[in-house]
Amino acid sequence: MGIKRIAIQILTLCLALAIAVACEPEYPKCDSDKDCREGEFCINGQCQLCRDNGDCAEGEQCAEGVCEPIPGYCANTDECPPGQVCRQNACVPCSSSAECEGGLACVDGRCMKAQCVTDEDCGPGESCRGGMCGPENLALVSGAGDADCTLDPVYFEFDSSEIDSDSRDTLQQNAKCIEGREGSVVIEGHCDPRGTTEYNMALGDRRARGVKRYLKTLGVPSEKLRPVSKGEEEATGTSESGYSKDRRAEFH
Questions:
Q1: What DSSP designation does 38 have?
Q2: Which residues pair with 33 in a beta bridge?
Q3: What is the pLDDT of residues 9-43, one digit of tens each?
């Protein structure tokens, strides 16, 4: 009887163990955290990597149980696209020069190399406004101009979007002309054929936007100016004499 009783107990124990194993959920299904792998959590019957943002690393958020990078997140300005600043862990346009680093100035929401700090940095008859040099008397360029006047192109040095003194003189005349016209003016940024297509598109964009910013300091309304980049699309130069004509911003 004793042997029979022991056999029954062993059989009962094996049966209970088999039932318990059979009832265990199959991964990634779970009843509790212990059914999941180390570092995972049982949420709504599924093993997941996070319950909320607190389970994720800095700069990540919990999305459907997985830690993913937060779009546009930054810890400092170095992690932001050129010209933007990091504010409250988000890359955004600058609002003042105090937010810009490395001696850059905030011009039209973008940190960029300033042309000036004080009026003394500008040429005769110019003053420093928002890091850009412009005429002291905006009335000189804000009056209505000739609707049939010519908008001349301005030219740039190699790999540069800086507006030099000759270009500033041209843009002052163009500003008078634009004020006398109806509708908007397209500013096309062009490049010589050297460099990659992607780089030249970006450089053309900087040139067009730089011209727009300068014209705005001359009193031209922003809504009348539409910058576009042509990159190297219309470049024709094969030597430096031709390249110098390719590096331009022209108006239509």
A1: T
A2: none
A3: 666 665 555 554 445 678 889 999 999 999 899 99
Question: In terms of pTM, does the model score above 0.85?
Answer: no
92 phi/psi in degrees, rounded to 5: -140, 165
Question: Could you read off the pLDDT of 188-201 as tens digits, one per residue?
Answer: 999 999 989 999 99
Strands 185-190 and 225-231: parallel
What Cα–Cα distance (Å) separates residue 176 from each residue in 151, 161, 163, 208, 219? 10, 22, 18, 18, 9
Domain 117-251 in this protein, CATH class: alpha beta
For residue 158, name the pLDDT band (cuts at 50, 70, 90): very high
What Rg do the C-alpha atoms of the chain give, in angstroms?
33
Of 171, 93, 179, 102, the residue nearest 132 (C-alpha):
171
Phi, psi angle pair for 185, to nearest 5°: -120, 135
* Domain(s) of CATH 3.30.1330.60: residues in the chain: 117-251
Exposure letters 212-237 (e unless 16+ CB within 10 A, then b): bbbbbbbbbeeebbebebbbbeebeb
Closest to 134 (Cα-Cα) out of 179, 169, 94 = 169
Alpha helices in 24-115 (DSSP H): none
